Amino acid sequence: MGHISELGFSKGLVSYVDVIIWVFLYIKKAWRTDGVANYDLWYDCTQRNGGYNCRGTNDADWLQAVQALMVLATIFCLISFIFFLCQLFTLVKGGRFFFTAVFQVLASLFVMSGAIIYTVMSPEWKNENDTYGYAFVLAWLAFPLTLISGFIYIVLRKKE
Length: 160
Hints:
Blueprint: H1 2-10, H2 13-27, E1 32-33, E2 37-39, E3 43-48, E4 51-56, H3 61-90, H4 98-121, E5 131-132, H5 134-155
Antiparallel strand pairs: 1-2, 1-5, 2-3, 3-4
């Protein structure tokens, strides 16, 4: 049993970090910022008198595509994490974590596509003072982590 828990922690660490990044991507509202206002995928928030005044974002087609891709990436990342936990206890000795790997790689492709669309299309909306926020950076960080995690699961074999 020690090998299973060691396997789950050491090789699944990238997945754990991935899930934490995905949670922060949805909690925090800073895909783009100008110091006073923060813009994310769903709301534009302005800070006034110590509080936030938020309104919904524009219904641009590209923004809806980014929203859909990020939601799909999150769902696939969570599904792969659940598959990993299930396969950790049900997979035969020497078996590979293919289902987990497939969902991780697909999640990475979704987040990469969403981040590319946001990078290419958002300059049309940016003012001179706007900068990309930390949630945007986290989205780009989530792509290689999720992809690496998927490749790790492809070569990973279960030990007894």
